[in-house]
Specification:
There is one protein chain. This protein has 581 residues and is mostly helical. It folds into two domains: 369 residues, no CATH class; 106 residues, Alpha Horseshoe (Serine Threonine Protein Phosphatase 5, Tetratricopeptide repeat), CATH 1.25.40.10. Helix 8 runs parallel beside helix 22 and helix 24 runs antiparallel to helix 25. The radius of gyration is 26 Å and the shape is globular. It starts with a helix and ends with a helix.
């Protein structure tokens, strides 16, 4: 399905290039809670730094080891080309051409730089792109460097947060290691336009680290700027107050008292106000625009999904086994993943996901009652809070299942499970401990290799879309974007073939028709090609009457053919539609 952002991309991107006649297109377990009204935080394990590393290297050795591992996993991504939305957010973004567009970036959307409507409000992401563009002269290296540094910082913060939470040091180290090299994160790291996830996560983790271990009101106010920077990076930073409440619940005494949680009120006020504004900002993509799009162009099952809360719940349950599988053994990672809607409960994946949710809830309830294994309970609660925007409970999203949605939520799972595994090995024989170490090390090396290989998928548009097709996905958006790439390198016959494949999947989107028409013009302005272009532009209008780019192209063609009446008609319609709100 062509998402709104990608549709806008194909419209403006190709149109701009036509005019240039060239498409470029603890047991450090917490001590038993005493019945007290005090809000004193639980003590930190002061032996954290010396349990796993020597006193002299405790501060640096684990950080250096993590940095080496993350670099080994991502070292081959720096030469990758622009792919997918990179052409929209980076390569074709006019706001990156000069420093005079800072005001536009601060007040506009992510697609404002190509003159398109919709998009997201992520000014910090685009400001960093502006800097990277000028550092690298428009090349790809600095954009990859940006994502790599952000991901590395997040990996190191994950490890340090484990220390402040008094988690087992070995468990925290291996949790950070596995999270840092896991290939499921390539969609957020190797993909240049994925910057929003690691950038937002950096501010969320940084703020959470500052708040630990006591979550004092003074610290709550101190992290407000970090929270705002997170919101300026990606909308899902809005979950930060919930993550803070999870931390307060698991770290402080009297977790069931409302007064204990009131200290986080400033963050909740900001988060709720932002969510209200963001949900009602009609000039940005969001639940309302997604709902309108799917109800207008989506298949009947998608409309049913949007209108039926139980269907959304069942579908959410069915995603959990899928995410668990990718986290445990990542295979068949790819974009454009079709995820089936689940209208009924009696489905294997729905029942399994429901069982996983119930078991996690019971585990958390028992941990709260007994005060034991609260580290893993914290991990489950972190995952639930961080993944809330992707559940579909709070409005329509642009997909049902995306790999990069696991970037922030999986942190809780890795840390919680890492601590639990480390504690389970305490008191075991040396043989068992060495076998466990060997198994984890082998898994980490395997993840490094898999990430290294997945980076190759993102190397070129051809490798990316071939991977989509090889994984059995039939995606008009992928065929359409592949066609744009071929047109960009002037392989027009291949481009035309790709656009025809997109149309064959379902001739219900105007973009493939529009792009096909432009490609015929670029291939050669013969009478036959011009007639084919007119045919496809008119078909695009038939599919979507408000598709004003097609009117503009028809106006130019008829002006070229000296048909003043038709040129005036299409030009007037284009101006009317472009001026419409």
């Amino acid at each position: 399905m062509l998402g709104r952002m990608e549709r806008l991309h194909t419209e403006k991107f190709v149109e701009n290039k036509l005019r240039s006649k060239d498409i470029r297109t603890a047991d450090a377990q917490y001590p038993p809670l005493k019945k007290s009204n005090a809000s004193t935080p639980m003590p930190i394990d002061t032996s954290f730094k010396t349990k796993f590393f020597s006193p002299h290297s405790a501060n640096f050795a684990p950080l250096i080891a993590l940095a080496i591992a993350v670099f080994a996993a991502y070292a081959n991504m720096f030469g990758n080309e622009f792919v997918f939305d990179d052409a929209l957010l980076i390569k074709g973004n006019g706001w990156l051409q000069g420093w005079g567009h800072i005001k536009d970036i601060l007040t506009g959307s992510t697609v404002g730089g190509v003159g398109a409507t919709g998009g997201f409000y992520r000014p910090l992401q685009i400001l960093l792109y502006l800097l990277m563009h000028h550092l690298g002269g428009g090349g790809t290296f600095w954009f990859h460097e940006l994502n790599f540094v952000l991901h590395l910082l997040n990996t190191l913060l994950l490890f340090k947060i484990g220390g402040k939470l008094s988690f087992d040091p070995k468990g925290a180290f291996f949790a950070a290691l596995l999270w840092g090299v896991h290939p499921i994160h390539t969609e957020a790291v190797t993909y240049m336009s994925g910057t929003a996830d690691p950038l937002m996560t950096l501010f969320v983790l940084w703020a959470f680290f500052v708040l630990l271990p006591d979550f004092t009101p003074k610290k709550i106010l101190a992290v407000v700027p970090l929270f705002l920077l997170g919101l300026a990076s990606k909308e899902t930073a809005v979950v930060f107050p919930a993550l803070v409440s999870v931390g307060i619940f698991c770290r402080l005494p009297n977790p069931f008292r409302l007064r204990t949680h009131l200290r986080a009120a400033p963050l909740w006020i900001i988060g709720i106000a932002y969510a209200f504004w963001r949900s009602n900002a009609s000039w940005l993509d969001g639940p309302k625009t997604y709902t309108t799009f799917f109800e207008t162009f989506g298949p009947p099952e998608m409309v049913y999904y949007l209108r039926t809360p139980l269907c959304r719940l069942y579908t959410f349950f069915s995603t959990l086994p899928g995410y668990a599988e990718l986290l445990a053994w990542p295979t068949h990672l790819h974009m454009e993943r079709h995820f089936p809607i689940k209208p009924e409960f009696l489905s294997v994946s729905v029942v399994l996901g429901f069982a996983m949710s119930v078991l996690a809830a019971l585990f958390v309830a028992r941990a709260c009652k007994t005060g034991k294994r609260k580290e893993l309970a914290w991990g489950f609660l972190w995952f639930a809070a961080a993944h809330a925007p992707g559940t579909g409970f709070f409005g329509a999203t642009n997909a049902l299942f995306l790999e990069h949605w696991m970037y922030l939520p999986s942190i809780g799972l890795f840390l919680g499970l890492g601590h639990a595994a480390a504690k389970a090995l305490e008191g075991r024989s040396r043989t068992v401990s060495l076998a466990a170490l060997a198994a984890v090390s082998a898994f980490a090396l395997t993840m490094v290799y898999k990430t290294h290989e997945q980076n190759k998928v993102w190397k070129t548009p051809v490798s990316l879309y071939t991977n989509v097709f090889d994984n059995g996905e039939v995606s008009p958006r992928a065929y359409d974007n592949l066609g744009l790439y071929y047109a960009d390198i002037k392989e027009f016959d291949k481009a035309i073939d790709s656009f025809h494949k997109a149309i064959a999947v379902g001739d219900v989107y105007p973009e493939p028709r529009f792009n096909l028409g432009i490609t015929y013009l670029l291939k050669g302005q013969t009478d036959k090609n011009i007639d084919l272009a007119i045919e496809n532009f008119k078909k695009a209008i038939e599919i979507q009457p408000a598709f004003y780019r097609a009117y503009e192209m028809l106006a130019e063609i008829y002006a070229f053919r000296k048909d003043a009446e038709q040129a005036l008609y299409y030009s007037s319609r284009a101006k009317e539609l472009a001026a419409a709100p």
